[in-house]
Amino acid sequence: MRPLLISMMLTFAALAVPAPAAAEPVAESERIAVDFRRTTLVVRDIEASLPLYRDGLGLTVIYDQLIGAGVDAEGKPTPATIRLVLLRANDTFIGNLGLMQRLQGDPPPRAPNARAQAGQPILVFNASDLDTRFPMIEKLPGVEIETAPVRVEYPGLNGSVIPVMFSAVYDPDGFFIEINQLLGTAAGSEQKPNDD
Predict the structure, then answer these.
(1) H helical segments located in the chain
(2) Domain count, the chain
(3) pLDDT digits over 36-93, tens only?
């Protein structure tokens, strides 16, 4: 249960800070000179990783290339050293995910699942259809379930409550991933989970 509690605390920290709705861009007067474009995960086998991100979460592959090929000092071609796959959710410019596989040498063994430590990411996805998406995700090879969907309520600002369906999985490389469905707003107006 400890990873669940830690992850829930991190989610609370993210929810407690008011943010504009996804459809509302930041006002020009509030924009900074930096956009956070992408997180790239170094994986052992892209083919083992893609089913969760592409099929389970529904991200769209927008780039899949072998890179790093070149020419050595004698002018002979050298092979590609990396395969890079980029995926996107709903935004074409920010919030994308990269999967990078080094093609030379044997991949390191998969680390055992463990609570998040310094230097390890926690990826957080919001899914408006968690009730139908999660059963597909839990059947994918290499995915390990940490927490099946459970309703949690986070304290919001000014005494409000933020209801969330929380779930968490480990991907085939052991990355910890939250897949959440927001059920309402900090003001407490609830949205019903999908009944479809």
Answers:
(1) 2-16, 46-50, 130-137
(2) 1
(3) 899 999 999 999 999 999 999 999 999 999 998 888 889 998 889 999 999 999 998 8
User: b/e map of 68-105 (b: 16 or more CB within 10 Å)?
Assistant: eeeeeeeeeeeeeeebbbbbbbeeeeebbbbbebeeee
Closest CA to 182 of 190, 170, 173: 190
pLDDT digits 0-9 by tens, 119-155: 889 999 999 999 999 999 999 999 999 999 999 998 8
Task: Give the domain CATH number at 48.
Answer: 3.10.180.10
Q: What is the 3-state secondary structure (H, E, C) of 25-41?
A: CCCHHHCCCCCCCEEEE
21, with CB counted inside 10 A (0-12, 13-18, 19+), is exposed
Domain span including residue 83: 2-17+37-103+121-182
Contact 61, 54 (CB under 8 A): yes
- Nearest-10 Cα torsion for 135, 148, 140, 108: 170
